[in-house]
Design a protein that fits this description.
Blueprint: E1 2-4, H1 8-19, E2 25-27, E3 39-42, E4 45-48, E5 54-55, H2 59-67, E6 74-76, E7 84-88, E8 91-94, H3 99-104, H4 110-117, H5 119-122, H6 132-140, H7 142-157, H8 166-169, H9 171-180, H10 183-193, E9 205-208, H11 214-224, E10 228-229, E11 234-241, E12 247-253, E13 258-261, E14 264-266, H12 270-277, H13 282-289, E15 293-304, E16 316-318, E17 329-331, H14 333-336, E18 345-353, H15 365-380, E19 388-399, H16 405-419, E20 423-425, H17 435-447
Parallel strand pairs: 1-2, 1-14, 2-10, 7-16, 14-20
Antiparallel strand pairs: 3-4, 5-9, 6-9, 7-8, 11-12, 12-13, 15-18, 15-19, 16-17, 17-18
Helix pairs in contact: 1-11, 1-17, 6-7, 9-10, 12-13, 13-16
């Protein structure tokens, strides 16, 4: 088997294939592995530059962690991380999570609260695809949608709630609506039905001690060893008829070397997969090329605790547009995972850019840091010089699950199998942008190529 792409999806696919007894080679175009899953350590600070962990309420990543003997390194987020804030009307205000919280919140006017809590009366299911904004407006009213729908998606894929499909982004919400009519009724039923997933913090956010999410990448790379080839850019993909009449794949590397395999997993971003498939599966290529990505800037800061006047009693905050703050939000990294900053220090990670601020990616790192510092002063009152400041620019960083996304993905998968029956796609642009989603698609891709007996 050949796996193209050395991000978390490709590493997981290769590891899954190796564990199934397959001869596997992973080809990564660049010099390093992990894709957007990257953590660095500097003077005692740990900064995650992509995902800062994963939720433990689904089995895929937990099973991968166990297979890598990393279970003892799991670090559940502190309980304070369950509290989230919005910067609204000049202050950080907690996001309500209960009916009582909605009654007390300053984020909605009295009529807005009444309309949101009347969801049980107004709710009805529809069969058409909707944007996240329209779905929330239909259930909770236009005021609640204006306040909450943007931040709801900004913290996930830096997207535009009016363009993103709720059916693709949050299929479980649609399922709850279909089953219960009312989303509030469905969420209440789901909470009662949920059972612990077996992690230290069931259903909560978790990362890894002593290194953050980078530890997962490093463990996968160590397990795969010489099966991984970096600086091995694939420039062409061809169909290779086998002796038994089936079609395998042949790839050509930038160096001119060619490799062939009976099975293939393409675990690159959608735009790279589209380039590879243009000649061999043009319909799949066309569908994947329609998946839009946005640029983001991630800015990491380290402060002395005494220089941060805000209590940091939560996960962080998000900023609805129109609040005279440019960044999308900030994560209080060391509040969630205390080992990510030295004693008496604070690690903060800021996210900026995305679908609604594409011009942020044009800023120099110095200018981006200055904008983020100004916004931290506005939102949190931080005026002191940071002990540590660094920016990472991620071009075409996060896929956008815009209206029609599920159909595009289904078309791409079907067209690929028609052209190359023993090829599969994996990646966070398919069924979800989280680390769990990337791992799940990778494992499913490999299992879809194996005989039934080998997947048990």
């Amino acid at each position: 088997m050949l796996v193209i792409g050395g991000g978390i999806s490709g590493l997981t696919a290769a590891f899954t294939a190796m564990r199934a007894g397959l001869d596997v080679t992973l080809l990564e175009a660049g010099p390093s592995l992990g894709g957007k899953v990257r953590s660095t350590r500097h003077d005692g600070y740990t900064l995650d530059w992509g995902p800062n962990g994963f939720l433990t309420n689904v089995p895929d990543t937990l099973e991968l962690v166990s297979a890598l003997s990393l279970r003892d390194a799991l670090l559940p987020a502190a309980s304070a991380a369950e509290r989230r804030y919005l910067y609204w009307d000049g202050d950080l205000r907690p996001i309500p999570t209960t009916p009582g919280g909605f009654l007390r919140t300053e984020l909605l006017s009295p009529p807005g609260k009444l309309r949101a809590l009347s969801e049980l009366v107004y709710a009805r299911s529809v069969k058409r695809e909707e944007s996240v904004h329209d779905f929330m407006a239909r259930h909770f009213g236009f005021e609640a949608a204006r306040v909450f729908s943007g931040p709801f998606v900004q913290g996930i894929n830096a997207g535009d709630a009016r363009a993103l499909s709720v059916d693709a982004m949050f299929p479980r919400l649609r399922q709850l609506e279909t089953s219960h009519g009312s989303l509030l009724r469905g969420l209440a039923a789901a909470r009662k039905a949920d059972r612990p997933a077996g992690a230290d913090a069931p259903g909560g956010l978790a990362s890894f001690r002593d290194g953050g999410t980078q530890r997962l990448v490093d463990a996968l790379a160590d397990a795969l060893g010489p099966r991984v080839r970096t600086n091995a850019r694939v420039t062409a993909l061809r169909r290779e008829p086998g002796r038994d009449g089936s079609n395998g794949a042949e790839v050509e590397l930038e160096s001119g070397e060619t490799l062939s395999a009976k099975m293939l997993v393409i675990a690159t971003p959608a735009f790279s997969a589209a380039d590879l498939l243009e000649g061999v599966a043009p319909a799949a290529s066309s569908a994947l090329r329609a998946v839009r990505y946005v640029d983001v800037h991630v800015l990491g800061f380290g402060f002395d605790r005494i220089d941060v006047p805000y209590p940091l009693d939560g996960f962080g905050f998000l900023v609805p547009r129109g609040q005279k703050v440019r960044v999308l939000g900030a994560l209080w990294s060391s509040a969630a995972f205390p080992d990510q900053a030295p004693e008496g220090k604070v690690a903060v990670r800021v996210l900026a850019g995305g679908a609604l601020d594409p011009g942020f990616s044009d800023l120099s790192d110095e200018h981006a840091i200055a904008v983020a510092r100004r916004d931290l002063e506005t939102t949190m009152g931080v005026v002191a010089e940071p002990e540590f400041a660094r920016a990472i620019r991620w071009p075409r960083a996060i896929p956008q699950f815009e209206l029609g996304h599920r159909e595009r993905v289904a078309d791409a998968r079907q067209a690929l199998v028609q052209a190359l029956p023993k090829a599969r796609l994996a990646g966070n642009y398919l069924d979800g942008v989280g680390l769990n989603d990337a791992v799940r698609t990778a494992r499913a891709a490999v299992r879809g190529l194996l005989p039934v007996a080998a997947t048990r």
